Amino acid sequence: MSSKIVHIESAQQFSSLLSSSRIVVTDFYADWCGPCKAIAPFYEQLASSLTRPGQITFTKVNTDNHKDITQTYSITAMPTFMVFKNGRETQRIRGADPKALDAAVKSLASEAESSSADASSSSSGSWIGASLPRGYSDITDSVDQLNLDFLNVDSEAGNARAVFNTAQPSAISKSKSTGEKDWIESDTDDQLMLYIPFNGALKVHSLHITSFPTEGDDDIVRPRTLKLYSNKSNVLSFDEADSIPETQEITLQDSDWDAKTGTAKVDLRFVKFQNVSSLVIFVVDGDGDGEKTRIDRIKIIGETGEKRAMGKLEKIGDEQGE
């Protein structure tokens, strides 16, 4: 058995690997499965040649011993190979298919080799401005972007979806945009009201907020005071937000902002954000005397929390290995 393969012993260990390794390849197998045994030597060869610490990690999950993990990822066939990038599933291969597995893994290995290991870049091309907390991942793709509702946004800046752009902010890349601006700014004063619905119930651990005040323009500032409201059915008016209790209030300090990425990590009281279908972020004021608050990116960090009932397991593939 290849010493490069990590044999998963718990759901916590698996979550930790998903957050600490850029790419994770997982073999869901069973001891009784003939096709699983047949493809195991090939999987070991891939692990031996392509494992890269912190970049590519090969794991195995015994479905009989870890039914909680099996259920979480809706594994119904043996073997199933899953590929994760930055904690998110990108590919699933059902059955003992060496050709498909080889193509998927080697494509990712090539991608990882050519990519920087810097925290502000990811192998999928999805930019992230701060390190991820242990055991959690970027779940911004769970945002229901069709039903976003932002108040007091300057129409000459980007639209609501701009802050969920997966690309590196133009303020860092210094690229000359030929289309819409990839950030938002407040309009009549420094306040913003952001209604962010999700496609499912999430466990939200923290937020990453990126802001690059325009150099030489004292009127553009970063957010300072934030009030968060969970599970609202629609955007709040500014008067309404002042009249109801917030789920949490945060005041950002200068020291919270990373100089390189322009990003502040906003830690939440996790116990209050365990079953979240939407967030309202009320930017109460900006950090300074400027009249316009700018936000370039928002990242949602946590767990999707979605689980499906586990069906009957079956084995798929060439039975000759039995």
Automatic annotation (TrEMBL):
InterPro entries: Galactose-bd-like_sf (IPR008979), PITH_dom (IPR010400), PITH_dom_sf (IPR037047), Thioredoxin-like_sf (IPR036249), Thioredoxin_CS (IPR017937), Thioredoxin_domain (IPR013766)
Location of the Thioredoxin domain: 1-110
Gene Ontology annotations for the cellular component aspect, listed alphabetically: cytoplasm
Domain of life: Eukaryota
PROSITE patterns in the record: PITH, THIOREDOXIN_1, THIOREDOXIN_2
UniProt keyword annotation of Disulfide bond present: yes
UniProt keyword terms in alphabetical order: Disulfide bond
Record-annotated PITH domain positions: 128-320
Protein family according to the UniProt entry: Belongs to the thioredoxin family.
Protein name (record): Thioredoxin domain-containing protein
Provenance organism: Aureobasidium subglaciale (strain EXF-2481) (Aureobasidium pullulans var. subglaciale)
